[in-house]
Amino acid sequence: MLARKALSHKTPTRPSAVYRGSRNVFADLDLPDADGRKTKLRLARALNAVIDAQRLTQDAAAARLRLNQPKVSALRNYKLEGFSVERLMTLLSALDRDIEIVIRKKPRSREARISVVAA
User: Fold this and answer.
1) 68 lies in a domain?
2) Where residue 80 sits, what CATH number does that domain have?
3) For the chain, how far is it from start to end, CA to CA, in angstroms?
4) What is the rounded distance in angstroms from the CA atom of residue 41 to the CA atom of residue 22?
């Protein structure tokens, strides 16, 4: 006869308080370089939107971006460890997109930030 293992049922722990996020999930998770990660994510979202709009296959996108198909797959799946902000901007320009960087004085009411806005 086979013996059955007893299943342990753990009650999930509940947080004691709920906090409003900072609008940067990477900062909320205490990850290093939160602003850089958010910037890369916004650029990758813009790249994926262009690839979708142009109905490019991964192979066609790879040819246009001068990447191999696995790199395009990583980009499509937001695995961005191998991509710098500069490289993502270069890839956007390869898909006929202008990139504009605006530098301005920040208001006194908040800390300095880096943001990417895709039109």
Assistant:
1) yes
2) 1.10.260.40
3) 66
4) 16
Residue type, 23: R
Contacts of 58 (CB under 8 A, 6+ apart): 69, 72, 73, 76
Chain length of the chain: 119
Among 36, 40, 46, 37, smallest CA distance to 95 is for 46
pLDDT (tens, 9 = 90+) of the chain, 119 residues, equals: 455 555 556 666 776 787 787 788 887 788 788 888 999 999 999 999 999 999 999 999 999 999 999 999 999 999 999 999 999 999 999 999 998 888 888 888 988 877 777 76
- Please tell me the number of Cα atoms within 13 Å of 39 on its side-chain side: 16
Phi-psi region of 110 (alpha: psi -120 to 50; beta: other; left: phi over 0): beta
